[in-house]
Amino acid sequence: MGHKQYMAVGQTARNRFFGLSPKPVPLSMLISQQGKLNHGRLAVITFSIATVVLGVILSFVPWLDYIIFKELKLWNGSLSYSYWQRPGVIRLTKVYIFNVTNPQGFLENGEKPKLTEIGPFVYREDMEKVNIKFHDNDTVTYQHNKILRFVPELSVDKNLKLVVPNIPLLTVTSFSPNLAGWLFNLLATGLSITYRERAKPFVHVTAEQLVFGYDDPLVTLAHYFYPKGKRPNTQMGLLLARNGTLEEVSTIHTGEDMESFGYLDRINGMDHLPHWSDKPCNDIRASEGSFFPPRLSTKADTVYVYDKDLCRILPFTYRKDVYINGIQTGLYTPPNSTFESADVNPDNKCFCQGEKCPPRGLQNISPCQYNAPVYLSYPHFYDAEPSLLERFEGLKPEQNKHESYFYIQPKIGVPLEGQVRVQLNLKVDRAPNIMVNDIHKFPDIIFPIMWVQEGIEGVSTPIWRWIFLATTFGPIAAPIISYSLIVFGLAILIHAFIKAYKNIVIGQNSLEIVEIGRETIRRSSTLLMNSSQKLLAHKETSYRPLSQSTPSSAHGSQEGRLQELNYIDKTDNISQSIDELKSILNRDFVKTNFCETEKESLIHSDNAFIVSEHRRCRVFKVPDSYY
Q1: Among 166, 265, 520, 598, whose Cα sits 20 to 30 Å from the Cα of 240?
Q2: pLDDT computed for residue 184 by the predictor
Q3: Res. 535: pLDDT tops 60
Q4: Read out DSSP for 219-260?
């Protein structure tokens, strides 16, 4: 060690001993020890700095949203793709049929039709997307494959006989005022002879037959004589077309742009509905129900739903926030203008197709029903013109039971619960020229046939867990993780600095303590020799300095080099205590060799620090009994 280095170490120890502040430590000394690079300390400091930097970056970057939206986009392998391709939810279709209890009284006596709601007839919808093909414009094309399976434990007996209007017959007779009356009379007469029960205004059928089809001669004729592409099914069934792979080919947006996520781009290659000629009636910008554009991204309060059987898109407007099983959702219901009359809502005028627009609460969907005069409404004529309700007995509209709704998570646009509730009605025009089976007595009326509730009552546990992590737990955990990284990194960094600082200041392998001991003993040796007779004149004990030994005389031993004094015990009778020696040492030696600040500190100390360090470093070769 050079002179400058020796003085620096001695000064550091001296300042430490007297409680004086040390000089600033260079940063390079924090990653080195005894002039050598400390790889372990460097690794710890590097790790802590990297942890802090990572925490700071994560606190400013929306990394959680990046992960969520990456898995939310539809691509082969994402979480949303498996949910969308084969939904892991139970979709139920519930059918409620209006049974007419007074058909004869209605036809012959002019009574109000007495309707009794029978149901539900519950069908579980097993659905998957097939023929899937992704495109370069961030869209995907597919077809629906649906199978409706009856759920008897949740249903009324599906073989129960019900009385309902004869839809095929009344559809044909409604066109009679525009055609020759004799032709319809001939047709009705032939039907009454050949198919007696199928030629009456009301028919007896089971729920299974009405929903999934029964043989009817008029439907069979229409199937053979209608132009190809517009032919109805071979049987009469209101939900018959729902089973199997649907012919409709849909193309939706995959989520590259969240403004249109889950919305239709094409239907059968067309960017509009072919049933209506004008906008907004022919718009297809709507969801098929699996995903919606997230409200937090779009800031829009209205979403749209499309179903082939509805023959249009239905708007749903945000109402309020609702928590379902700990997850925030938005409640959406249809606005009052959905089935409003064209006089009040001009946007509905394009649904009229050249005929008189229906009253409030009705929607003509005959273009989607092979031109049969079928009208759409809410169940029990909920939110409809009161005159529609007044013509029947047994209808009781209730908002909780008959209003459609969706609960949609605003961050990812996934519905947690939703039901679409619509009613199918038959518009009957009186046929005064057809006398067979009292058909001419059937008045002009919008007659309810049945209403359907289709949707989900909840999501499966795995889907709920994924949504909860992404929307509830994640936003709380993400900042905690980011700030924890910062705190953890800073804690490690501070600990490393403190540890390195202590190693430098307190002493590198006790070198500084040894140096202060050496300096103290050298400076006090003369005093001890001169005052030994005065202090210990009556004792047979003395000190003598070591001879200036050379490496050869000391045999190269480290112990010999460290010894400065040698204690010689000439008698066991010590009459003066060590405290007297320490007191004199403090006063005479200190006053002679130290500055004022050092004098004051040493005079009032008991030198325990120096004594203990001397014993540990073996500066003094003194028996333990001496202390």
Answers
A1: 265
A2: 62
A3: no
A4: HHHHHHHSPTTS---SSB-TTGGGSEEEEEEEEEE-SSSGGG
